[in-house]
Design goal:
The chain is of the alpha+beta class. The protein has one domain. It contains three helices and six strands, in the order E-E-E-E-H-E-H-H-E. It has a six-stranded antiparallel β-sheet, sandwiched between helices. Strand 3 and strand 4 form a beta hairpin. The N and C termini lie far apart (about 50 Å).
Length: about 140
């Protein structure tokens, strides 16, 4: 029996992601903030594909996915900067092997999207792991 979706391109053509670290949801207090330093409480990703920026923001109750273009992306970058944002440019690691996912929160969601393994549990740990793997800083 033929695989029905073998020739369909469901994936985005994003090979370079921008990973943003900071405190982007002001006024939101969560119990895990006890384990993350100020300025390192959240991580999200965005990448350019097919005429727009795909922004993926893993939140506690859901993952917000949206397409931002032009001025909307400029506003998104302004919010990231205002939240103390640090942005890394990262080439996606395409791994075709099983990966332990663990609990689903911002760090594990971003690691899974990038194809990363390793023991990064906080946004700050993920930042340093990406730097060690050759990510480049876009702005701080």
């Amino acid at each position: 029996m033929a695989e029905p979706f073998r020739d369909c391109d469901f994936g985005l053509d994003i090979v370079t992601w921008h990973v943003a670290f900071g405190d982007f949801h002001p006024g939101t207090r969560r119990w895990w903030h006890l384990f993350a330093r100020k300025g390192w409480r959240h991580v999200l990703v965005f990448g350019y594909s097919r005429g727009g920026w795909i922004v993926i923001d893993p939140l506690m109750g859901h993952t917000d996915v949206r397409v931002a273009m032009g001025e909307e992306m400029d506003r998104t970058i302004a919010v990231l900067k205002a939240g103390g944002g640090r942005i890394l440019r990262v080439d996606r690691i395409k791994r075709y092997r099983w990966m332990l996912r663990g609990p689903v929160y911002c760090v594990t969601t971003v690691k899974h999207l990038l194809g990363m393994g390793g023991l990064s549990f906080t946004p700050e740990q993920l930042y340093h792991a990406l730097i060690r793997q050759g990510a480049t800083e876009v702005f701080r």
